[in-house]
Amino acid sequence: MADDFELDTDDLGRRMDGAIANLRVELASLRTGRASGSMLEPIMVDAYGSPTPINQVGTVNVPEPRMVTINVWDKGLVNKVEKAIRESGLGINPQLNGTIIMLPIPELNEERRRELTKVAGSYAESARVSIRNLRRDGMDQIKKAKDGMSDDDQKFWEAAVQELTDSHIKLVDETLETKQAEIMQV
After folding, report:
1. pLDDT at 55
2. I want to staple 165 with a disulfide (CB 3.0 to 4.6 A). Which of 57, 115, 135, 152 is the partner?
3. pTM value surpassing 0.90
4. Residue 52: what are its φ and ψ, rounded to 5°?
């Protein structure tokens, strides 16, 4: 019965890939001193009674390397968008010009860069924890099917899960290194 055991490593890999994709989204929201529309993605605006992403209430543009503009479609939402940006913790002071909100991106000082690298590190650690939890799920599936499974088969599946885990943890570390280098670049 257990000789037929087949661990779905593809599914496990997809779920680990999901943790890495989530990490990339979180890291994209960190400000690096360069303007980027993705830094506004996590910000939600209370529009029409429900939280709405900024890119669904206006057009987000990056006309200059240090400027992001948002052309809000509904004039009644301009102040709500401005308030959401101020309260987001990005450290950006929005400037209004009719229905256009301009976000000048200030230079990051050394202290703020170090803080951002720590935040990036905490995001990466969350991704590592998610991947380790998925590893544990895979190992639990192997242990449940252990009855009747040969020791060699058990070791084979455990090694496959560990190899998948190691490769994804390495990818998290590389992604973090790249982001930290980007943050610390003056």
Report:
1. 87
2. 135
3. no
4. -130, 135
